[in-house]
Amino acid sequence: MLARSILCRLAVCLSVMPAVAAAQADKIPWAKGPTRGALGSEATISVPAGCLFTGVDGVKMFLQLTENIASGNERGVVMCQGDQTADPWFVLFSYDKSGYVRDDEGSKLDADAILETVQRGTEAANRERKSRGWGTLSVEGWATKPFYDRTTNNLTWAITAHDNTGGRTVNHSVRLLGRGGVMHADLVTTPTQLDALVPTFNGMISGFTYQPGQKYAEWRPGDKVAAYGLTALVAGGAGVALAKSGLLVKFWKLIVAGIAAAVAAIRRMWGKLTGRRNEMQPQ
User: Fold this and answer.
1) Is position 132 within any domain?
2) Do the strands 74-80 and 51-54 form a parallel or antiparallel pair, or are they unpaired?
3) Are 63 and 104 in contact (CB under 8 A)?
4) CATH value at residue 228
5) In total, how many domains does the chain have?
6) I need a labelling partner for 209 at 20 to 30 A (CA). Which of 7, 166, 173, 176 fits?
7) Side-by-side strand order, sheet with 168-177
8) pLDDT of 146-178, one tens digit each?
9) Is 6 exposed, middle or buried, given 0-12, 13-18 or 19+ CB atoms closer than 10 A?
10) Confidence category of residue 82, pLDDT binned at 50, 70, 90
11) Adjacent-strand bridge partners of 52
12) Residue numbers of the domain that contains 56
């Protein structure tokens, strides 16, 4: 029931969660934290207390329920509740088997040029969202400009956006470089909660571990090397090269959710759930 309650608060399409969607939420195979979740065969993540985790078997249904486009590369979701005055948030993990991404662009990332590409990619993704009857999204700008940490081999940035109802969201993204590809970790929350949640998110990411032999430092000559670098990784990875072919939307993963699209609507939903507040606590 914890999962259903949080998903009700994440839902953006109705003032109450449809009965069918609520039933689907209960079918997702959730594991309660603290636990360790398997992100496919590539890595694992430490899931803190007060959060839920579902892996490959449940992530597709989760994305459908929260009106997000799946790429097929998803490996898992960590979903957490805030306190009774805060909105819920989640972290989506997906893996790109593109190969070893060279980090020689780490000190020369052009944030302005990247943002323009991000905006074009979001426009392409909006066509897919419209075809599904979902709301559209518009990029506002950087909450955190892209930066690369050579110690951890992590690339980080954050972008704010709003949907067609005016509801605002922020995606705080980390790309964890590995030997054979890149694990994507996207924190989805509201802009007002971002600063408070980043330390929690960073703590979660510190519990991320590639499987033996898959770490960035374990690359060996002869291993596959990605056809793009850090700039393209921020701007959509392999999708950038496919923009002219009209396939960008298939790869675009910038905005992973219009979470809490209308804060007032979510508060109405939460009001309807006040009788379930005890269920919001993990057993």
Assistant:
1) yes
2) antiparallel
3) no
4) 3.40.1000.10
5) 1
6) 7
7) 31-32, 51-54, 74-80, 89-96, 182-189, 168-177, 154-163, 137-149
8) 999 999 999 999 888 888 888 787 888 899 999
9) buried
10) low
11) 32, 79
12) 2-273
